[in-house]
Hints:
Helix content: 25-40%
Low-confidence stretches: none
CATH architecture of the largest domain: Alpha-Beta Barrel
Structural class: alpha/beta
Shape: elongated
Strand content: 15-25%
Mean pLDDT: 95
Order of helices and strands: EHEHEHEHEHEEHEHEHEHEEHEEEEEE
Number of strands: 18
CATH class of the largest domain: Alpha Beta
Bound molecules: pyridoxal-5'-phosphate
Amino acid sequence: MADFSGIKTPAYFYDLDLLKKTLGVASREADRYGYRLHYAIKANNNPVILRIIREYGYGTDCVSGNEMLRALETGFTAGGMVLAGVGKTDVEIELAIKNDIFCINCESLEELEVASKIAGKLKKIVRVALRVNPSIKADTHRYITTGGEENKFGIVLPQLRQALDYCKNSAEIEFTGLHFHIGSQITSLDPFKKLCETVNRVWREFDITDYSGKMINLGGGYGIDYKKPETNSVPDFGSFFSLFAEYLELPRGTSVHFELGRSLVGQCGRILTRVLYTKQGAGKKFVIVDAGMTELIRPALYQAVHRIINVSSPGHPERYDVVGPVCESSDVFAKDIMLPRTLRGDMLHILSCGAYTESMNMNFNLREKPGSVYFSEGKIVPGEE
Ligand SMILES: *Cc1c(COP(=O)(O)O)cnc(C)c1O
């Protein structure tokens, strides 16, 4: 690795070569089946990262008006853009319709009415997919499942017929198809197989083809290996897409879309952080670093575990809790992990921080937003922002 000694910490660090490799593998594997890929911008909206993703020809999945604007500014096309979210504002829906985006994924009957009304006011047609809540349990943390009965997302099956009929009867709505997204950080293919079965069943039972449905969007949620990021840095997109090719039974010509976030960007990012202090507590040793939950909230928010390495010290392994400086007891990155004997000033890397890390940065305690560092072909490169 490069010489990081001059870098101000904490910093977000991105391996652009790994990002490109991952993007290349995912799009090549999706191309085998003609699947279309949208990048879920909320995973990481860093402009340098976005520009590279755009160069690889991805569409976008946005969850706010500002994400749509950022995507358009970056040069992504409106034609490859979808807008998702349970709580779209009127302003966001209007922005989507004015820009003629590929489609809005609608999540409730009321939202359909609002979208249709806004389109009428603008004298435009709004393309709509219906997001279905399929009641599938994804085996992941309870805060990142989205397709279960207790989740706020999507239209439940007992209301789907009414929603479809609403689309059919609205002069302003062009119904395109169905949208599903069952959760995030799903590392087993089994929930996706169940998703295919559900999609096939719902498509048949609700006569989606008779409603002129021509598109299926299967969302994202494919997980990454947080335990062994160095040796398993690119998710197995081959197995992922071939599963859908094997199990989906939809009419010929149906266009199949995915919205991948974490699996595309998760492994290319790290946090670089320096040790401020070490101290002996009651029964354990603490390593206090200069990054905190403000830079990486995932451990505090959903007990995420990130691998941490000490790149400065070759010392003998000892047991530590690695904690941040923020005034919250949940500001803990790791408990009881083994690190080489760690000293004040050592640099640690927190791995797998490309997704839901910089985009979740907050300024609690009035902490400054860290800078970003880009890395390619063995050296630090400018991001050309
Ligand atoms: C967040 C989100 C995604 C991306 O999820 P990942 O787990 O990062 O792949 C895709 N679709 C929708 C609707 C989302 O909200």
